[in-house]
Amino acid sequence: MTMVAILSGAGISTDSGIPDYRGPNGVWRQDPEAERLVTYGPYMADPEIRRRSWRMRLDGPVLKAEPNVAHRAIAEYERTSGNALRVITQNVDGLHQAAGVSERKVLELHGSARSVVCTACHARSSMAEALDRVRAGEDDPDCRVCGGILKSATVMFGQRLDPVLLGQAMSIAKATEVFVAVGSSLQVQPAASLAGIAAEHGARLIIVNAEATPYDPVADELVREPIGTALPALLDRLR
User: Is 110 annotated in the active site?
Assistant: First the structure.
């Protein structure tokens, strides 16, 4: 049995209609001001930023998105390969689980956009429920438990990753025999460092990404073809 770890970034979900952030047509290049809507300091300090952020989510693609062929290929690999699989994702869309990957096999490093959390009492509820309140006229819905500020249960810019989750991800990177980084620019730290950690500990590092990444020089294999065709073919080989 081979241990395989997959680090997925925004590029794996673009075929599901979710734009990436840093690519040629990424969100930040199209609308640099949009970054403020998902940055913790401005979000907490400015009610208008929060109102714009909720409107953005109301019209956003995440809750409407469906898994694509790449997500389904990973789920099929888990079911049929006989190898140990762990998925570490930088994405917040929940599409790996929706495709059928076991919940316990997925580490969501940056949280989930399908839930909301109170910044004061940490109570959680569903994003769908919060957006229903926005549609009903609450432009900045507050926590129904304590009245605190609600936010998406994601790691915003300016917030630290959960140290427990990060520690688990690092342990996986150190132990895995094959590490596949797919659809990630490998620029956002500390998640990007997992590729280097895996390579340093003897894993075969495969990078599937349209553009060059900082970790290309230490990769054993670089795949530039579209993810929707390249990843299923790669996983077939890894069987």
Answer: yes
